[in-house]
Give the backbone structure.
Amino acid sequence: MHDVAKPVKTQMKSKLKTMGVAVGGLIALIIVIVGIKGLQIGKMMSTPNVMPPTTVSSATVKEEDWAPTLSAVGSLSAVQGAIIAAELGGVVSEIKFENGGVAKKGDVIMKLDASQEEALLRSSEAEAELARQDLERTRGLASQKVVSKSELDAAESKFNRLNAVVDQMRSSIRKKTLVAPFDGQLGIRQVNVGQMINAGQQVVPLTSLDRLFADFALPQQYLGQLKPSLEVHVTTDALPGRVFGGKLTAINSMVDSSTRNITLQATLENPDHALRPGMFAKAEVTLPEKHKTLVVPGSAISYAPFGDSVFVIDKQKDGKTGKESQVIRQQFVRVGEARGDFVAITQGLKAGEVVVGTGVFKLRNGMTVTINNDLAPKPQINPNPVDS
């Protein structure tokens, strides 16, 4: 029994020794791996974290001659416009136009039933003809001293009175026919055939659209700078992207005592009839003198409650490697008026400086950038989008 137990103990010792060697090897492997990772982490921590350059578009600060403008809001009105209305009452017998059609001066718009007036006209004409014959006979007798002067005067008076009745009946018949007083575009009719209408009943609007008025107002302090024939540019939200040119044609003779504004009127050409009376419009009056203005694209401005800014692109050289890079610097500016895609800069920039043109919201001070203007939009003073 003693001899059997001895080999068993020897085998157990051998297994324990083998397990110890394996555990030692595993521990050594773990120590090596930890050491390698530690060296890698230390190297990463000792190496500065350099972000790759951000690609941006650029724009150069330009100095341009801008004529000062005065802006206001107003509305459009017709140079010639009227609502055709019936001067006399009656029953509508004919409507001679289509809704939204075009009418020329003298075209018949509508007719009212005038059968009664026409019958009375024939009766009055007959009486007037009889009065004319009586007057001729009385004149012949008066020349022969057969009738008195008073009888001749009575015959002449009767003839004139009956002729006046004929003229009145003809006028009433003419007023039963409504005609276009000028060339223009008709609106939507407000009467129907067979309808009984009263005097003054509105029938249809008629508007000449070739030219329109733009009515607006400016504060009284600008009165000394205003004069007729100044250029006016009008835009409206109904036609985005389009600018309509015109001239200042009228300045009101008095200032509104409640608002201290002076009312102005410009005349616009409207050959394609795109504008309509009653539209809301924005008007800009261009003053004659010009001044130098620094301008940048509006997309280059970073607007913020604490101040507006741009990112100026500066060139910096590394003192160790001598390599040149482009670094952005945030520059606070004071902005002026906007025209089209451009914004005037009144303080903070100099002509010739290069600024970031688009995407300023993703930038921060001191970033390294590269410039790529291949896909950058081209700003314009009078932009005209393709889909407008």
